[in-house]
Design goal:
Number of helices: 13
Oligomer: single chain
Order of helices and strands: HEEHEHEHEHEHHEHEHEHHEHH
Strand content: 5-15%
Shape: globular
Largest sheet: 6 strands, mixed
Radius of gyration: 21 Å
CATH architecture of the largest domain: 3-Layer(aba) Sandwich
CATH class of the largest domain: Alpha Beta
Low-confidence stretches: none
Strand order of the largest sheet: 1-2-10-7-8-9
CATH topology of the largest domain: Rossmann fold
Structural class: alpha/beta
Amino acid sequence: MARGIGDEKARAWASRAIDLLLADRAAEPPTPLRAFPLAGPPGAALYLKDESLRPSGSLKHGAARDLFLNALRSGEIGPDTPLFEATSGNMAVAQAYFARLLGLDYTAVVPGKTGPAKRRRIEEQGGRCHPFDPPLAVYGKARDLAEESGGHCLDHLERVGDAIDWSGSDSLGAQILGDLEKAGEPTPAWIVVGVGSGATSAAVGRYLRMRGMATRLAVVDPENSAYFPGWAADFPGYTTGMPSRIEGIGRPRMEPAFDPSVVDLVIPVPDVASVAAMRHLHAITGLMAGPSSGSCLWGAFQLLDGMRREGTRGPVVMVVGDGGETYRDTYYDDAWTEAKGWQLQGPLFDMERFTATGTWGVAPAG
């Protein structure tokens, strides 16, 4: 157990910390819903729920706060509890944000090859990085450091599914439906999300089921990830043993938070398509987003094309997971993408054509 949690002073501190986090959530403005300028298909529209404008810059912001609230309520965090996590991405940035808000020490255990830009984002929020190799050993190392120091490992991959608040009026699913209603749009035909820990898809899907909505939930999955093959085979134990090359989504195993029962479709997305789509999103809207948003845009286009062919109608909403400034020297850099072997011209042409005409693929003869 973390030190100092059991006494009266620590419990009073935890109560104040919970109030502070709840007040922070209440004061946070909703993220915008943006229309994507799509020429077709008739009767369909594409909207972007822009989670990159969360205070710590990503979709992970709300999930990190819920992890803190859950740990405070269960007595695992006190006023002097050092916090640890095994991640170098957006979750670490968001957790460092809330640790600083509560005046707590936070350490992200990151793979040794984690670049300076990613470390700097964590450090700018008041956290510190503890490099460790091999990369898959960071999870055990974070737990060991927490135990050795009398601290707490937030362990988001194992805990976030139980911690996340999916049923409230400020949940992501509720916000999307409310935003569309305010825009004068009908219930969405599809909501499209990426999947990393699986918590977002589970939260949105459960909210839709609770409300009895006809809206269907699509998950996009990059190469090397276990979610598409595991979902298609109905085998939760499926593993690939390979890391995703698309930052923010894809896992070598199906994580505990993923709930396949609330997912209507998993769309496999080639990595080159994800990268091309994030660039297309920027070119068309001016919104610089991360590669997981490219995956979502590609998936949304596939769904819209299917709706055109089937003659079905209704808006499609895709979630923008994070901003793109972090990726200027990687996914937005031509030399970097060429070194990966990604030839973007083909998928870029397909998306430009679909955006302009509402049709996919080669134009019909005549």
